[in-house]
Amino acid sequence: MFSHHREREQPIFSVRAHVFQIDPATKRNWIPASKHAVTVSFFYDANRNVYRIISVGGTKAIINCSLTPSMTFTKTSQKFGQWADSRANTVYGLGFATEQQLHQFSEKFKEVKDAARLAREKSQDKELANQALNIAAPQDLGDELQSPQMCSNGPEDKMFRSQSADITLSAEKERIKKMLSEGSICEINLEAELFTLQDSNSKLVAALHEANANVEQWKKQLAAYQEETDRLRDQVAELEAQGGQGPSDLLKDELSQSLEELESLLKAKDEEIHCLQSKKSEYHEMEQERDEAMHRLQDMEMRNSELERRIQNTEQNLNNTLEDRDRVDSEIQRAIEILDIKIFDLNDLRQSLCKLIDK
After folding, report:
1. How many Cβ atoms sit within 10 Å of the Cβ of residue 341?
2. What is the biggest distance separating any 2 CA atoms in the chain, rounded to whole angstroms?
3. Cα angle 297-61-35, degrees, rounded to a multiple of 5
């Protein structure tokens, strides 16, 4: 069925990017959906008037998302963006090689979303027209989804509620939310940067292997050229030693020209070898940058674990504080009940004394 839809769909825009999906368990961490950068494309189905975002890795569809007007593409860093798909109950993330590619994808996302909105409006107008033509036919109306109105009347505020405890609880909650957001944003940025460096590293490795193969071939050619140059130099020396008995001056000029061409070719090959050696040093620098990124990622993971531990301790302290406050409230309530009983007893005693005095 997927291939059938692909046959009648037309591609609109394509770009290569690393694809991620949000972890369904934590809803904070990103899970790579592809080992390398894959093609992400916008498709339009004219028969169904539907726009989709599709990405295929091998024989499996990594992204198969129908675009709706309610979707929004958000840039979370210079080379990373994300959007939510409520139908698939997931969040997709894309890591691009350049900031320009991210900008192009974001603009195309907005353009296609507006087109999807217009398509939906046209479809709704067409359905209304069909309903007007077939108004005599009975139609089954779907039940409307209504969100129940939550109306809860909470208990009356207690007489001795501690305002300082409430202020402390709200401040702790805001601090926990801030720590969680900072940790997740830093982790997402570092993961996107790491995958960008890995992509650049794989490209440099391929270029280095190709350069090494070319260097071996050029070394063989260089040795052959050096042998030919030595042979020609020997011939020129023999001709010069023979003097008038040797070949003509025209042959000498040809040999000298061939010698100059070989020397210039040798010089060019030497320059290419130096250039390849400089690229090799750049490759080592990229490896060092990748190692540094890995170290930073490990440090961030350690910080995240430390933050989670602190959050757990804070939540435990909050729970203990809530329990203490509930216990104090119950004790106060019990003391109030006892005081009410004592006041009632004193009132009865007062009335009894008044009766005795009147007698």
Report:
1. 10
2. 170
3. 30
Residues linked to residue 83 through DSSP beta bridges, in sequence order: 92
Distant-in-sequence, close-in-space partners of 109: CB < 8 Å, separation ≥ 6 = 67, 73, 83
- Which helix (H) or strand (E) is 327 found in, with range? helix 249-358
Q: What SS3 class is residue 52?
A: strand
Low-confidence ranges of the chain (pLDDT < 70): 1-8, 125-202, 242-252
What dihedral do alpha carbons 300, 305, 309, 315 form, nearest 10°? Answer: 80
Please give the torsion angle defined by the CA atoms of residues 339, 342, 347 and 352, in that order, rounded to the nearest 10 degrees: 180
pLDDT at 177: 62
Contact criterion met (CB below 8 Å) for 191 and 79? no
Read off the amino acid at residue 213.
Answer: A
Specify the pLDDT at position 167: 61
Helix (H, G, I), strand (E, B) or coil at 198: helix
Rounded Cα distance, 287 and 203, in Å = 12
- Tokens at residue 208, please? 């280095």
